[in-house]
Amino acid sequence: MALGKALLSRVSSSSAGWQRRDSEAGGVGGRAEDMEEGGRDGASTAAAAAAAQEEEEERWASILPELLREIVRRVEAGGERWPMRKDVVSCACVCRSWREVTRGVVRPPLETGKITFPSSLKQPGPADTPIRCFIKRNKMSSTFYLYLSLTQTFMDKGKFLLAARRFRRGAHIGYIISLDADDLSQGSNAYVGKLRSDFLGSNFTIYDSRPPYDGAKASSSRASRRFASKQISPQVPAGNFEIGRLSYKFNLLKSRGPRRMHCSLYHPVVVQDSSEEDMLKSKAHSPGMSLVLQNKAPRWHEHLQCWCLNFHGRVTVASVKNFQLVATADSSRPGGIGDDETVLLQFGKVGNDMFTMDYRQPLSAFQAFAICLTSFGTKFACE
């Protein structure tokens, strides 16, 4: 472990050196606007900095693969939780060879229950123990922030995962979901997906910024397009891909209890690459099947004289927004997804603007967050 920490300290110093060299190059380049000779000096300095950076990367990449894999394994074993887990991310940021080895060592959330990279947010959670998260709401800015719980209490700061902003377009309500809490726009590189509702706010469509499987086509409707004109960058997808729908059933009789929900999600057929170089690389080759979820029916409590759900201490405030989702009979085993008693997603209130969110396989953090966002706001004739 001492060897891993020593190498990480060298990585940090090297990164600082790269930043200083880039800053120097940028300063010389700025004076090039006024002096041609300064421009030549700036270009030569930038070229020298790039060469030095390339030489530094080659030096890190020259480590024996067996030694490098052992280093990353020790660092990964010592970073069970955040914030220590940032050392694992640092290993993946050194160079391409380090990134490939790190991705091969770090197992997906399905197997470990750990969220490490941004790609983990779109991978299913573990089957046995749910991943515990919480959502903070800012009513003034209509923004919502998803955090990974670091302790068993509701008081920890958590590890930021995703952010969402609610917006209105005509009679429709929508949510933009981003990896960056300060950049909540569809044109951002941090954009990961969106939600869109009908004019009643009782039917929602979930869109992903990435195609869920090979050959998937982006939605052709104007409201779901990501950009109004041309694609701004080859690295930024120019469309939204529908991955699910959720609806709240009407409650015309005004019966007490939680809202009745029905959710249909795209569930891909994934081919896992078991190669040692990249064990996390997976590819969905077909549209897969539809995962159908519904809210778990509450039970009447004779002593309290009300309908109740057992949230196992994770929900402390009664609210119509609270819910638990289970698989329907058609989606339950033998398909391996779950049964009609296993809670795949639960969401509930613990404070004025604080809510807990616990999810497990086959849902990802992104899907669970999108579903929970639909619970905010008034549902006409559904409550």
TrEMBL record:
SUPFAM superfamilies: Tubby C-terminal domain-like (SSF54518). InterPro entries: Tubby-like_C (IPR025659), Tubby_C (IPR000007), Tubby_C_CS (IPR018066). Residues 1-52 are annotated as: Disordered. It comes from the Eukaryota. Residues 121-378 form the Tubby C-terminal domain. Belongs to the TUB family. PANTHER family: TUBBY-LIKE F-BOX PROTEIN 7, TUBBY-RELATED. This is Tubby-like F-box protein. It comes from Ensete ventricosum. The lineage of its organism: Eukaryota, Viridiplantae, Streptophyta, Embryophyta, Tracheophyta.
